[in-house]
Amino acid sequence: MILIFAIVIGLVTGYLKAKLEGIPYRPDELRFLWLVLMAALPQFLIYSLPITRERISDQWIPFIIIGTQFMLLLFVWLNRKSPFFWLLGLGLLLNFTVISLNAGWMPISPDTLESQNVLTSQWEIGSRLGYSKDLVIAKESTNLWILSDILTLPKWIPYRVAFSVGDVLLALGVIGFLIHNKQAAQETSKIYFQEKLES
Fold first, then answer.
1. Domain contains 45
2. Which end of the chain has fewer CB atoms < 10 Å from its terminal CB, N or C?
């Protein structure tokens, strides 16, 4: 969900910024977008689509999560020269690391769930949290706990969600990429070289 918010914020801000500058909004072109689609489809099936998420065994989920994360990392590497992709990639890498070190699941602690007012009847230590990628693990049993889903939104925001440091970096990378305007960069370069020629 945090990624959806990042995309919306980045697109809106980038578009408004381009309008204020009086130039077309044109983010950098990305290559191998089919890798993102290949990663998104299995995640949609295991998290969102009721008919499939109820039938896919939890034993397969870690393989699907790690596989899709690897595809996204490959996509970032292939587009590493795009603006802010280093930040996006770092976020993905941190998530991939903590998930890989915790049997293919993103750990979430009972303390985090209690801070989100999630009823104890809705979770059990050692079990998957609903249909999410999270596995409820005690803090002391979590590998690289600091990279797990330990962050939450301020209490004055009614939406309840837990996320990781990697999620934050990933979201910032997406926002930065979408705000950066290829057209603006080209205009700046043009002005710079014109001034050089005239001087």
1. no
2. C
Residue 97's SS3 state is helix
Number of domains in the chain: 1
Q: Answer yes or no: is 178 within a domain.
A: no
Residue 161's DSSP bridge partners are: none
Range of the domain at 124: 102-143
CB atoms within 10 A of CB 63: 11
Selection from 88, 90, 100, 112 nearest residue 179 by Cα: 88
137 part of a folded domain? yes
* Residue 130 placed within a domain: yes
Which phi and psi (to 5°) does residue 123 adopt? -150, 160
Please work out, in degrees rounded to the nearest 5, the angle formed at the alpha carbon of residue 176 by the alpha carbons of 147 and 12: 115
Q: Which uninterrupted H or E stretch holds 162? A: strand 162-163
Q: What are phi and psi of 95, to 5 degrees?
A: -65, -45
DSSP-derived pairing of the beta strands 151-152 and 162-163: antiparallel
Q: What is the pTM of this model?
A: 0.87
Looking at the DSSP bridge assignments, the partners of residue 135 are: 107, 128
Query: What span, in angstroms and rounded, lies between the C-alpha atoms of 163 and 160?
Result: 10
C-alpha torsion sign, points 30, 33, 39, 45 = positive
What are the DSSP E strand ranges found in 48-116? 106-108
Which class for 50: exposed (0-12), middle (13-18), buried (19 or more C-beta within 10 A)?
exposed
